[in-house]
Automatic annotation (TrEMBL):
Keywords: Antiport, Cell membrane, Ion transport, Membrane, Transmembrane, Transmembrane helix, Transport. The keyword Zinc does not apply. This is Multidrug-efflux transporter. It is found in: Cell membrane. Pfam families: MatE.
């Protein structure tokens, strides 16, 4: 054990160093939606909150394809860094921005389609009207969000994750300020009500995109990747490469997000109390999941860098270190969920003992799937570092939509296990993915040879 720790200690330290700023940055993006809901709910009431909240959830579902698709670029940048290819890094940066523009346009139109057909969600007329207009503004804000994520891949891939972290935290404060000013019409600002919250998100995301691109272009640490000669290099092949590798990764993220959205819908079919308990427990699980995605992103970067250096040993160490790190973190989260479930639920609800008791039981089940959730998301990350995305997409589709969701429905409704049955199905799907994804990683690892790495990875 001591020998193992001595070998893996540097890799564990580097993965952790990369993970923490990425976790904070990702939580900051998610917290923008939470901030919108908090301001709308406290300042305007239940109906505007219902319309805004549903729009935020739908917008996140649509944008998940772009967010997951662009995330692969950091691993590609890290691979090029391992090969010390500054020209390719420049091409990947410019190609990533072009892909972001494309995805922003396409998914923006998809979001607009959701807004146009908002009445199909069966909401009351007031919620439908608010939700439709709110969704249109959020769809427009996808463009600057994707530009920020694309530019961020350069920073993360070159192991400068604190750049995106700092900008995201600044934007989170800016978003809260704009929410207050535009909702209430304080000072010289117009009173826009609920739509002021959506505009606050648009302005904050615009700030994020402009800030990170300006920083990259002006910071001395990035200048080696922007030599004048690089401007003449075409990026068409890199655009195709990012789309080819990134879109399956985007749909992998979409399948998982959609699974939990559909699980919430099924919980709502059982009743308001069941849905409330589900939302409390899933909110806790989502928080730890977001932290695990930081380790996943760091694992992808470290594996990609090792691949670029043509080192099978380094690839193994990077992948194993990420898996062990997430196992330790999610193991700790599992212990907290299993032993402090009642206390955790008390932070959300106090005046409804039936909902509190049901939520506490679901938190215990959430404790059991913490390890599976962490391992599967890191499994996706380390495979992304190897540019292996097609098979993981099939694995997640099978695990979540063939195993998890049908089992949730059968156990919850046919066998009358209620919302607990839905969660057992989620546990089964996550566990299946947590088994198959690491197996895939170690299968590819055995095929890696220093003299044929590119052929092995891109033609598995």
């Amino acid at each position: 054990m001591k020998q193992w720790y001595r070998i893996y200690k540097p890799e564990l330290g580097e993965t952790l160093r990369l993970s923490i700023p990425i976790v904070i940055a990702q939580l900051g993006v998610v917290l923008m939606g939470v901030t919108d809901n908090l301001f709308v709910g406290r300042l305007l009431g239940a109906v505007p909150l219902a319309g805004a909240g549903l729009s935020v959830s739908l917008a996140f579902l649509v944008s998940s394809i772009g967010v997951g698709g662009l995330a692969v670029t950091a691993a590609l940048v890290s691979q090029a860094r391992g090969r010390r290819d500054a020209a390719e890094i420049n091409q990947l940066f410019r190609a990533g921005l072009q892909v972001a523009l494309l995805l922003g346009l396409v998914l923006g139109l998809v979001g607009a389609g959701f807004a146009y057909f908002f009445d199909l969600f069966g909401q009351v007329p007031e919620v439908t009207q608010i939700g439709r207009n709110f969704m249109l503004i959020l769809s427009l804000s996808n463009l600057p969000l994707f530009l920020f994520i694309a530019a961020r891949q350069l920073c993360d891939g070159l192991s400068y994750p604190r750049v995106a972290m700092s900008i995201t935290l600044s934007a989170l404060v800016l978003n809260a300020l704009f929410n207050y000013l535009l909702i209430t019409g304080a000072g010289p600002f117009p009173e826009m009500g609920v739509y002021g919250s959506a505009l606050a998100t648009l302005l904050s995301r615009g700030f994020m995109a402009a800030a990170i691109i300006l920083y990259i272009r002006r910071s001395p640490k990035f200048q080696p990747y922007f030599q004048p000669a690089f401007r003449l290099l075409r990026v068409r092949n890199q655009v195709v490469r990012i789309l080819k590798v990134g879109l399956p990764g985007g749909f992998t993220f979409f399948f998982e997000v959609a699974t939990f959205s559909l699980a919430a819908m099924m919980a709502g079919w059982l009743g308001a109390d069941q849905l409330a308990a589900h939302q409390i427990a899933i909110n806790m699980a989502s928080t730890t999941y977001m932290m695990a995605t930081g380790i996943s992103a760091a694992g992808a970067i470290r594996v990609g860098n090792a691949l670029g250096r043509s080192s099978q040993t380094a690839v193994r160490r990077a992948g194993v270190a990420a898996l062990w790190l997430v196992t330790a973190f999610m193991g700790l989260a599992a212990v907290i969920f299993l032993t402090a479930n009642d206390w955790l639920v008390s932070w959300y609800i106090r005046d409804n003992p039936e909902v509190a008791a049901l939520a506490a039981s679901l938190v215990i089940m959430g404790g059991f799937f913490q390890l599976s959730d962490g391992v599967q998301v890191v499994g996706i990350g380390v495979l992304r570092g190897l540019s292996d995305v097609n098979v993981p997409t099939v694995i997640t589709l099978f695990a979540y939509w063939i195993v998890g969701l049908p089992m949730s429905y059968i156990l919850g409704f046919w066998l009358h296990l209620n919302v607990a049955g839905i969660w057992i199905g989620l546990l089964a799907g996550l566990t299946m993915a947590a088994i198959l994804l690491p197996i895939r990683f170690f299968q590819l690892l055995r095929k890696l040879k220093p003299d044929a790495i590119e052929e092995t990875i891109y033609h598995p």
